[in-house]
Amino acid sequence: MTTIGGEPATGTTARAAGYAHAAAWLLGLAAGWGAAPEVGDTPARIATAYADRPVQAVVQALLVHGVAAAGLVVVGSGLLDRARRTGNAAARPAGRAGVVAGALAFLQLVLELIAIPGADPASPGRTGTLFEVVQRVDGAKMLALAVLAAAACAASRHGALLRRRELVTGWALAATITVSGIGYLLLSTALAPAAFISLPLLLIWIAALGAALRRCP
């Protein structure tokens, strides 16, 4: 296997992808502050938010559902590579879930790039519908991320990949992002706010997972 500085190239790439995932999310949140609608908003409010700040909304979408999604795919692929090399069967569903989560994020990006430029507050129905689809896809993505976290933690039961604090964070992520995932899938304003807990855990844990793939090739 090709190495970089004595480390497997896949591990080095996964670590960079984990950090890039967190950075893209943070930059996306900053860029789109106040420009993104929320679950439960009316179609008129959604269309108005997009129409008022389309550039901010597009930049956020590109970062959060483009760059960050690519990071997820790379980390998921790193887990699949590890499963092939080590024979750790539990790492395989984790890797697949990471790739699926990245693919769902890319789907969100495509839908947003259709919805944002076409937003018209005078005729908000289409934009509102697309926004709701994006949120439901987000819910499915969160559930895939819950599988990623739980399966990766299960694959590390004997400390082969993740350290104790990373396991604790991973299980906490799996629990909280399941709740927020169901909330987004059902467009539930009662459950969706769990993302305020699951998102920070996600950013920390994906970065730690990428680093672990380099640390434990």
Notes on the protein architecture:
With 217 residues, the protein is mainly α. The chain has one domain. It has 7 helices and 2 strands, in the order ββααααααα. Strands 1-2 form a two-stranded antiparallel sheet. Strand 1 and strand 2 form a beta hairpin. Helix 3 packs across helix 7 (195-215), helix 4 (91-115) runs antiparallel to helix 5 (125-154) and helix 5 (125-154) runs antiparallel to helix 6 (164-185).
How many alpha or pi helices?
Answer: 7
The low-confidence parts are 1-9
Percent of residues in helices:
over 70%
Strand adjacency order, main sheet:
1-2
The total of beta strands comes to 2
* Percent of sequence in beta strands: under 5%
Structural class: mainly alpha
Termini separation comes to 11 Å
Which value, in Å, is the CA radius of gyration?
Answer: 18 Å
Q: In the residues, how many domains can be counted?
A: 1
What oligomerization state is this entry in? single chain
**Shape, please?**
elongated
* Largest sheet properties: 2 strands, antiparallel
Mean pLDDT: 91
Helix-strand sequence: EEHHHHHHH
